[in-house]
Design brief:
The protein is an alpha+beta fold. It has one domain: Peptide methionine sulfoxide reductase (Metal Binding Protein, Guanine Nucleotide Exchange Factor, Chain A, Beta Complex). The strands form two sheets. It has a six-stranded antiparallel sheet, with no helix packed on it. A three-stranded antiparallel sheet has the order 2-1-9, with no helix packed on it. A hairpin with a 6-residue loop joins strand 5 and strand 6.
Length: 167
């Protein structure tokens, strides 16, 4: 007998495999949005400022392999910022352990992220990107905890963590 958790794990494994194939092949979905962002840079400028992994995720809509981000296990108090432009995105109070292998949150900060339809891999998902620089962060799903019921499943490489100041 298979449980919902078994099917969920299978789906996560398949998504991770597709993401790895996408990254290995160099394929990246083109950003077809005509949205304008406060921070715009040339491709060369982004490449010079970001690590190759950050560039692949933030600018080419890639996905890091599940379980590879140390931010997934981070329980410290603080704020998660966009690795591309340092905009504050998520407070640590909204982070939770989803079991997916990616840092997950149930709510972003106000006016921090935008969303768009992502029709890659023969399915429709909701992409989450930084509202200031347009960097791809991950996706949002409707299987999260209360009070929102949302799971903002973010690529850790697209984020920077700033601990809460003490004292």
């Amino acid at each position: 007998m298979y449980s919902r958790r078994d099917f969920s794990r299978l789906g996560i494994a398949l998504a991770g495999g597709l993401a790895a194939l996408k990254s290995a092949s160099g394929f990246a979905a083109e950003d077809s949005s005509s949205e304008k962002f406060e921070i715009t840079k040339t491709d060369a400028e982004w490449k010079a400022e970001l690590t190759p992994a950050q560039y692949n995720v933030l600018r080419k809509q890639g996905t890091e392999p599940a379980g590879t981000s140390p931010l997934d296990a981070n329980d410290a108090a603080g704020t998660y910022l966009c690795a591309g432009c340092a905009l504050a995105l998520f407070p640590s109070e909204t982070k939770y352990h989803s079991g997916t292998g990616w840092p997950s949150f149930w709510k972003p900060l106000d006016n921090a992220v935008s969303t768009s339809a992502d029709n890659s891999y023969f399915m429709t998902r909701t992409e989450v990107h930084c509202r200031r620089c347009g960097g791809h962060l991950g996706h949002v799903f409707e299987d999260g905890p209360k009070p929102t019921g949302l799971r903002y499943c973010m690529n850790g490489v697209a984020l920077k963590f700033v601990p809460k100041a003490t004292g």
